[in-house]
Design brief:
Layout: H1 2-29, E1 34-37, E2 44-48, E3 52-57, E4 61-66, H2 75-100, H3 112-148, E5 160-162, H4 164-188, H5 194-217
Antiparallel strand pairs: 1-2, 1-5, 2-3, 3-4
Helix pairs in contact: 1-2, 1-3, 1-4, 2-3, 3-4
Keywords: Cell junction, Cell membrane, Membrane, Tight junction, Transmembrane, Transmembrane helix
Membrane topology: Multi-pass membrane protein
InterPro entries: Claudin, Claudin_CS, PMP22/EMP/MP20/Claudin
Length: 218
């Protein structure tokens, strides 16, 4: 049962991590980190991402413009761009390491210690990738809430609201952390050591010898 449980858990962990990494990359390049609905013109919706700002028109589709300068961005967007790129890179590196450490992979079957280290490093990279994906989206969400309820801004001024990319980023971070936890659980699972095997065999031999002596006396 354990022989089937461990590979299935490893495969589930890397698949969940792969889903989280794809969602993390999608979050990085989606322009819907913030949404702005104009009451004066309900046919237009403004969106802002890490790389560009867009205007969604009901008749003309979407028109986007890249940001001219990185330094001109608000602090939360500058740091979020760096963290999301780092999250994508660490997630990709984690996929490569944990992929070579899977038990179902025939490469390196005689080097189980090395494969377990690869799984461990891959799981830790997934944790790092998940955390660095959750932090920027949470920071942008926090700043959006602060600006939305800022009493110093007149009520007639439109307020930014949560965009779809924030929810995708939270889901990506959760999947990455969950996938890394599943991989590390397979490493921390109980193993059968050779000493315990020898002890069980010796105990079984003693029982057989005891039964043999009893049959002789009978």
């Amino acid at each position: 049962m354990a022989l089937l449980y461990q590979p299935m858990m490893q495969l589930s962990g890397i698949l969940v991590s792969l889903l989280g990494w794809v969602l993390s990359c999608l979050t990085t390049y989606l322009p819907q980190w913030k949404n702005l609905n104009l009451e004066l013109n309900e046919l237009e919706i403004w969106t802002m991402g890490l790389w560009q700002a867009c205007v969604v028109q009901e008749e003309g589709g979407m028109q986007c413009k890249d940001f001219d300068s990185f330094l001109a961005l608000p602090p939360e967007l500058r740091i979020s761009r760096i963290l999301m790129v780092f999250s994508n890179g660490s997630g990709l590196f984690g996929l490569l390491l944990s992929g070579f450490g899977l038990d179902c992979l025939k490469i390196g079957e005689r080097q189980q210690g090395q494969k377990k280290r690869l799984l461990l490093f891959g799981g830790m990279l997934f944790w790092i990738s998940g955390i660095t994906a959750i932090v920027p989206v949470s920071w942008v969400a926090h700043s959006t809430v602060q600006e939305f309820w800022d009493e110093n801004i007149p009520d007639i001024v439109p307020r930014w609201d949560f965009g779809e990319a924030l929810f995708v980023g939270w889901l990506a971070g959760f999947c990455l952390i969950l996938g890394g936890s599943l991989l590390n659980c397979t490493i921390c699972s109980t193993e059968v050591h050779p000493s315990s095997v020898h002890y069980a065999v010796a105990e079984q031999q003693d029982q057989c010898q005891h039964l043999e002596n009893e049959t002789r006396t009978v």
